[in-house]
Amino acid sequence: MFEGKLVRLRALRSEDAAHHVRWRNDPEVVRWAAAGDPCFGPVTAEAIALGFETMLRLSPRESAVFTVEELAGGRVIGMADYRDLDPYAGVATLGVTIGEREFWGRGHGSDTLRLLVTHLFGAYGLRRLELDTWSGNERAVRAFCRLGFHEEGRRRSAVLVEGERYDRVLFGMLREEWTDPV
User: Is the torsion defined by CA of 9, 14, 16, 22 positive or negative?
Assistant: First the structure.
């Protein structure tokens, strides 16, 4: 368990599945978290249950999914993950989704990402972290840059959201660039 200023990251539990079903069936969450990707949602509770069986057995040496709780009341508000952890190359890919809309734009996502970066650079001695978003998600782009991630590339016109084309924006951070903003 890791605590920040606004959130706590804890291990995923089977009862968290209900939150994932709700978030992945909320069109606004799907729009911002996954650029409206139909593979993200909508989704059935049965499909989430199958995915949870796998997520609950992940080896933290390769990937992990955390539940994000707000510190003030302990409410579950989102999820964070890392995947494709390559100890030889020293690289992992991250993701953060704040599924409860009332916590959007209030710093909870940034605090979550900060905790995840600190954990991965500290516990695993990684050299580099990566993440991406779509160019229409300006709030995520600002948060990534504010934490020290650098835009490293774009896959032009790679994302389709509500009939409009956007770029997939790729970000990276090297260990020596990380200064915890706490």
Answer: positive
